[in-house]
Write a structure and sequence with these properties.
There is one protein chain. By secondary structure, the chain is of the alpha+beta class. The chain has one domain (about 1-164): Nuclear Transport Factor 2, Chain: A, CATH 3.10.450. The chain is built from five helices and five strands; from the N terminus they run H-H-H-H-E-E-E-E-E-H. The protein has helices spanning about 1-40, 45-50, 55-60, 65-75, 160-164; strands spanning about 80-90, 100-110, 115-125, 130-140, 155. A five-stranded mixed beta sheet has the order 1-2-3-4-5. Strand 3 and strand 4 (about 130-140) form a beta hairpin. The longest helix has about 40 residues, at about 1-40. The N and C termini lie far apart (about 55 Å).
């Protein structure tokens, strides 16, 4: 009987920890989403580059092509975010903890509707150079569109499909 209540107590503490982390995940997502969307709305290449991790910047050989594509695709005045969702992968282990978040938001301008997917590591104890955004994908949204996992650093552009 003692061990059952011991497990229950431990289980309750774990739930408290996860609840606190969920708030943190939402905060990470909100901050990253805001930085990316503000950079897109303001055609700010420097800010958009600054959200990427050092690792992503070193691996993304075609970042300028992605920036050109993204800014040419975006049209109109931002109106609102209509939907958002995310997935979280939290890894505890040696040499340290990592948290990977894959998120998206669907938003409207006065001209079009877009889907913005982004993958990032807000916590990266194993490799500090990987902390930050790894991939950004902006596409026009249509019903049924899904995210495609490229596993590539940088900003999506159509040549990624040709070179996959």
């Amino acid at each position: 009987m003692f061990s059952l209540s011991g497990c229950f107590s431990s289980f309750g503490n774990r739930i408290d920890i996860l609840n606190k982390e969920t708030k943190t995940e939402k905060q990470f997502i909100k901050e990253t989403e805001t930085q990316i969307l503000d950079a897109i709305k303001n055609n700010d290449r420097g800010t958009l580059k600054s959200v990427f991790s050092q690792k992503a910047l070193s691996e993304a050989k075609d970042l300028e092509i992605g920036l050109d594509y993204l800014f040419s695709l975006y049209q109109g005045e931002f109106l609102e975010i209509t939907n958002r969702n995310h997935g979280v992968f939290d890894h505890l282990g040696t040499p340290g903890r990592t948290k990977e978040i894959s998120a998206y938001c669907i938003f409207q301008t006065d001209k079009k509707t877009y889907i913005l997917n982004y993958d990032f590591w807000p916590i990266q104890e194993a490799d500090s150079s990987a902390k930050g955004v790894y991939t950004i994908r902006l596409r026009e949204y249509f019903e049924g569109i899904t995210g495609k996992d490229y596993g590539r650093a940088g900003i999506y552009h159509p040549e990624w499909d040709e070179n996959s």
